[in-house]
């Protein structure tokens, strides 16, 4: 696996937090959906997936508080600066871990595909993001963990990443960063499974914002969206991946990269089990509408990457409020 440094020191992390929160969070509000590897040609297959090891299941953790609504507080936006030096975002989701600090997203929403190597800059996570609001604070990434094959040769069967974030921060009216607490303490953490049979249905949560092939724009990317669909194996072209999986979902690619695929999700608990992550979308029936999300299959290799991230402590970058 590959360890990807993000904001490795408290001083750098504080600078990153101020970049996003200064001037009324202008850079968050001005960010645009990431448009790298958003769509791929593909077809549905009738074959089954074959796990490469025993099944693994990590239990979710419900949040201590639960505002009104049925959508998961664990979902949010991953923000970063791309190779074009402009602010962008993908979708991310919180997963349960030992130190309550892990965010799952697509690998190419953490590693810069448009550069020879290295991470996307100023990487942060905002859970519950909606129309410019940061209801649970902003969480600066300290390090990311990816599979070596994605870091080294861009194997899209390994296009997933787990980011370790510091405690959240908010910027006071006196320009002071104050501690907002641990991520999972504030919003809960989804469970996660590996080496499972394909689920009959999954719920996909993300912030789609891009256009359909016909030019229409059904989503704004400003609020969290949900779709429910069946899963299946796929064959894709133009993307190095041997055994991707698909889900029936109308999400467009831009903005929804990194969307969570949750099994056994219930609105009462707002918890389920992460079993996929959107890395692209497809229109297999060529009807001019994206109707399929594409994900790597979570296998034993994915579990090892998750384990590495789950055991990493981060800490605070600000004084307790």
Q: Can you describe what's shown?
A:
- It is a single chain.
- The protein is mainly beta.
- It has one domain: Thrombin, subunit H (Beta Barrel).
- It has four helices and 22 strands.
- A six-stranded antiparallel barrel has the order 5-6-7-10-9-8. The chain has a six-stranded mixed sheet with strand order 4-13-19-18-14-15, with helices on one face.
- The longest helix is centred in the first third of the chain and has 21 residues, at 10-30.
- It is globular and about 60 Å long.
Structural class: mainly beta
Give the percentage of residues in beta strands: 25-35%
CATH class: Mainly Beta
What is the arithmetic mean of pLDDT?
94
Number of helices: 4
**What is the number of E strands?**
22
Taken from the alpha-carbon principal axes, the silhouette is globular
Which residues form runs of ≥5 with pLDDT under 50? none
Helix content: 10-25%
Number of individual domains: 1
Series of H and E elements: EHEEEEEEEEHEEEHEEEEEEEEEHE
The CATH architecture can be given as Beta Barrel
| Rg value | 18 Å
Q: Termini, distance in Å?
A: 36 Å
Strand order of the largest sheet: 5-6-7-10-9-8
The CATH topology assignment is Thrombin, subunit H
